Amino acid sequence: MAMKTELAPVAARDLQIIEYRGQRVVTTEQLAAGYGTDEVNIRNNLSRNLERFEDGKHYFLLTGSELREFKNLVTMSYLVNKHTSQLILWTERGAARMSKVVDTDQAWGYHDDLVEFYFTQRDAIPSPSSQLAISRKELALMVIEAEERAEAAALENKTLSATVESLEKHFTKGMTIPAFCKGLNGVNVSKMSWWAFRRNWLYNDQRDPEKDPRWRVTSYARDKYLTEEITNITPHGKDEFKKYTPVLKEAGCHRIYQLYMKGDLPMKKTWNGEYSHDKAIYIPEEK
Q: What is the separation of C-alpha 94 from the centre of its chain, rounded to a whole number of angstroms?
């Protein structure tokens, strides 16, 4: 019998609609499958980052009578185990925040699908068994939360526009990871190749540990974040050989910038705490 963690994620557009307190939610199991992890990791991440998550805003913790009532209304046994003593339901904001904590490329992609095909698709009418009765107080909360979501979406779009504009000024076709990061204030450029190695973007093709690394692009990152420029080298009196230089694609530039703004790049000890970039000429990548 397959373990729960081995179940393939259900596409966001095909998820059974669940509503609680007037808003769409997903279970921990659904979130874990979509984010490429397991339920234990999701719960542990919540426990370690409780100060970042607010009950009633980012998630709902159901126990006791609330859980019993929810089990009676949600009749699909694969969604709620009858032996469960507590249940966490994740809101749109909570799912977004957890995708940043989990921080896998699968999590980022699945969260985008959740936003596009699940949380924001209001035309589908949920069955009575998938939602609780809505009181006047909950209806008022729905209005407030809808306004907050609209404000959050507007802020996210504004931030995204600023990020894209920043990258367009900074990215030049054929840039290596260290070259790109030289323009990002505070980044320790000397550690970026090893950072990419630990993130499975690069591997070391140099077999002699006494020599400098010879970086190549991994199959995972190839044509997704990076590609390779090949140069034929002919030393005097020696055989010709090929030199491979990993260079960034635009998607890789965007991903590094995202991680930079999150504070996940190696930074200099003398960094002043400001996130900024210089002004480079932008050359669009050929399609």
A: 13
Give CA–CA dist 96/101, Å, rounded. Answer: 9
Pair (10, 91) in one structural domain: yes
Q: Tell me: do 116 and 213 sit in the same domain.
A: no
Taking the whole predicted model, whether its pTM rises above 0.85 is answered as no
pLDDT tens for each residue of the chain, 287 residues long: 333 344 556 788 878 788 888 888 998 888 888 888 888 889 888 988 888 899 889 999 988 888 887 777 655 445 676 677 888 999 999 999 998 888 777 888 888 888 888 887 654 444 444 444 445 555 556 666 666 666 655 555 544 445 555 565 566 778 899 988 988 889 999 999 999 999 899 999 988 888 889 999 998 889 889 999 999 888 787 888 888 999 999 888 888 888 888 888 999 999 988 877 754 333 444 44
Domain that holds residue 231: 177-262
Alpha-carbon distances of 221 from 98, 113, 235, 247, 264, rounded to whole Å: 23, 21, 31, 11, 18
Number of independent structural domains in the chain: 2
